[in-house]
Structures are given as structure tokens and as C-alpha cells.
Amino acid sequence: MIDISQLNNVTVADDKKTAVIGGGAKISETIAAADAAGVLIMTGNCNGVSTLGALLGGGYGNTMGMFGFGVDSILEMRVVTADGSTRVVSSTKEKDLFWAMRGAGPNFGIVTSATVKAYATSEDERSAWCGALVFTPDKLEQVVQAVQDLELSSHEVTFLYFASSGPPAHAPVVIVSLWMYRGTPETGKVTFKSLYDIGPVVDTTRVAPYTAWNAAGDPFCAHSKRKPSFTAGLDRLDTKAWRATWDSFVDFQKKPGAQESLILLETYPMNEVRFAGESSAAFPHRKTRFQVIVMAWYDDPSLDDEAVEFGKGIRSLWQGSDGAEKKATYINFGHGDEPLEEIYGDNLAHLRELKREWDPENRFNQWFNIV
Predict the structure, then answer these.
(1) CB-CB neighbours of 300 under 10 Å
(2) Which of 207, 215, 213, 136 has the alpha carbon at shortest distance from 176?
(3) Nearest to 239 by CA among 171, 286, 174
(4) Any idea what the Cα angle at residue 234 is, between residues 229 and 240, rounded to 5°?
(5) Residue 153, pLDDT score
(6) Which ranges carry the FAD-binding PCMH-type domain (predicted)?
(7) How many other C-beta atoms are found inside a 10 Å radius of the C-beta of residue 337?
């Protein structure tokens, strides 16, 4: 293992148009540095993971409707390749490697730093209206349909959770997490009227600063316990499949120590910004509408087999109800057992050619190894 966690500097340029992010910088560190410098930077939504690790896999995040996928924000990288040399790669230098790294990076080298786009903002422009609406389980079908029917603008994101209500009861609940850039309670309730009309029993929405946008996901993203997860990319939501998902989730969540298990559905705006760099990076599946994850969360290793059965069953249910011609799996959410075709899509053949060129001895082979 090569530990680059100490390469965690984040430096914003004087003109506030770019930033250099160290390969070991966590998302929380990047956001803190960006906020202090008065800029926004496209990042993922989990504070505890590597900023560049998330971006190189594709890079879903709150601001992607405005700024595009994370891979599209990368301008240049310093990469240590399999021959031990350090190279600067960009759209004009080592172009093939630059293309491959953005979507299949772990197969080609170690990124020690990257220059990314930054966006100068005022303090008011670094705020969002966000929070959770909690619904009773009998409203599930209405909530799923409302989420599917939403036409999100570039400034909006919606997550659907099945999760625990927290101690002491740990009752399973349906939660919709809302995010609206520069939103207010008034504009948020108008935009998401279809969800409010269903009748949430709890509403935690508020205006929050940039540094708090990811806070709700901190427990989900924490490095603790056993968390085998399974995922799928979906084009549509089937309410019957989601009721079956709920029933399976409730059954597993009842197991001793498994009360924090969860289901997550991420919905981002389907606008042209997402597809602007469609052929410029190896990251595929840009038009996948929903990203869904099932995570069994527990301590007791005796639950391992049941957790895998639970996760695989939910994944199969989702993929079977989607109706898509080809399965699509987001590499950053993958379990590790998915076929390479699901991960890399139509880019797999070219990636194999580049793998033979840049890493003929297959030194970088730890995550969805291209062979």
C-alpha cells in the first residue's frame, strides 16, 4: 500500500479560477480551503473520502448540474506511472493517459496532485437550502413517484433514503434529502411542492453554508463497522420494486446490530452540462438518471453471508425492474464483482489498449483491473 494522505495541501490560485489539490486531500479539506479562499470547487458528497479519488471515478456531487462531472473539472494532473516516472498529463500533454485516468485512474498510476477548475463566489453565493423530509412508510409509492417525476434544474439535487430514525427506536423511515443552490425556505417549498404535498412528518431543511452541505452524509461516509455495498445505475423507478426493496430492507435492518443499514437513491439534474465532456474522458454512463446503493451496516462478522445475500438480492431487483438494454455501474459505488463491461461501458476496448501501453506488467491492479 502507498499512503499519500499527507499530500493534502489545497492551494487556490490568486485569480480564483483554478486550484491545485494534493492526492491525499479529503473532500472536507478541499471544501474548507475553497471556502476560505472564496471559491466553489466541484467535489463529491462524502467528506471523508479522497477528493481526487472521487473525481477520477467520475465525480457526482451537489454542484455537478452547474459545473459538470468531477472528471470534467480536472485540467492537469501529476501522475506517477508504472515505470516509476512522474508525468504531467492534460488535454495537451499525454492526451491518451489524461483521457484514461479520468474514469479508470486506479489502473494507470498514482495522482500526486491535480489542477482543477475553481469558481469565485461571494459568501452569499456559497449557500444552499438543504435538509431532510421524513415520511411514514405508507407514503413510499407516492414519494418514489414524486422523485421520478421531478425535473431538477441545474441548481437542485434530491436523494431518497431508507434509513434508521436513530436511537433508541431505530425505526425504519423514508427520507428525502433536498439540496437547492442559493435556495430559501420559500423557493425550496415551491420547487419541491410535489413532495411537500405528500405530507412529511419531519422537515429539517434550512439555509446552510458551503462547509455544511455534506454534513448529513457524515455518518454514512464514516470509516467504521462492516459496510458491504451494492449498486446499480437506473433509468427509471418502479414503485412495486421499491416497495419490495423496502420490505427486504426492513427485514435485514431488524437483525441485531444491523439497524444502521440503509438504501440510497441519488438524483441529479439531467442537463447538458453533464454531457459536455462526454467523449473527452473514459468515464461512461453520463446519461444514467439514478444512482442507487444498498449498504448493509453492522459489526458482527457472522452476518457477512446474509449481508451479501441481502445486497445482491436488492441489486438484482433494481436491475430487473429497470428495463435498460445495458447495465451501468458507477465505479466509485461498485462492490467489486461487477463485469468490466458494466463499469467501463463502450470504452473498455480502448482502455485495454492503453493499459497494455502504460502498465504492461499490470502493477496497478487493485480496483476493477483492466485486463
Answers:
(1) 14
(2) 136
(3) 174
(4) 90
(5) 96
(6) 1-121
(7) 9
Q: Return the beta strands (E) in 258-369 as ranges.
A: 262-267, 290-295
Q: Which region, left, alpha or beta, applies to residue 160 given φ > 0 means left and ψ of -120 to 50 means alpha?
A: beta
Q: Are strands 10-12 and 18-22 parallel, antiparallel or unpaired?
A: antiparallel
| pTM for this prediction | 0.95
d(CA 320, CA 315): 8
In this structure, what DSSP letter does residue 271 have?
S
Spatial separation of the C-alpha atoms in residues 12 and 311, rounded to whole Å: 41
Whether 278 has a pLDDT exceeding 80, the answer reads no
Give the integer Cα–Cα distance in Å for 317 and 241. 7
Nearest residue to 191 via CA among 159, 160, 156, 161: 156
Q: Helix (H, G, I), strand (E, B), or coil: what is residue 113?
A: strand
Amino acid type, 52: L
| Alpha-carbon gap, residue 363 to 361, rounded angstroms | 6
Beta pairing class for 202-203 and 229-234: unpaired
Segment 230-244, tens digit of pLDDT: 999 999 999 999 999
Do 112 and 80 meet the contact criterion of CB atoms below 8 Å apart? yes
Domain with CATH 3.40.462.20 in the chain: 127-333
Please report the beta strands in 100-240, taking only residues with DSSP state E, as ranges in sequence order: 110-117, 119-120, 127-135, 156-164, 172-181, 202-203, 206-209, 229-234
**Lookup result for grid cell 492537469:** 76
- pLDDT, one tens digit per residue, over 296-335 is 999 999 999 999 999 999 999 999 999 888 899 999 999 9
> CATH 3.30.465.10 in the chain, residues?
10-120
pLDDT, tens only, 123-142: 999 999 999 999 999 999 99
C-alpha span between 323 and 306 (Å, rounded): 27
Determine the Cα angle at 65 with ends 211 and 263, to 5°. 70
Q: What is the pLDDT of residue 9?
A: 98
Cell of 276: 459536455
pLDDT computed for residue 274 by the predictor:
79
Give the model's pLDDT for residue 222.
Answer: 79
Give me the CATH topology for the region 127-333.
Vanillyl-alcohol Oxidase; Chain A, domain 3 (3.40.462)
Determine the topology of domain 10-120 in CATH.
3.30.465
Identify the pLDDT of residue 254. Answer: 96
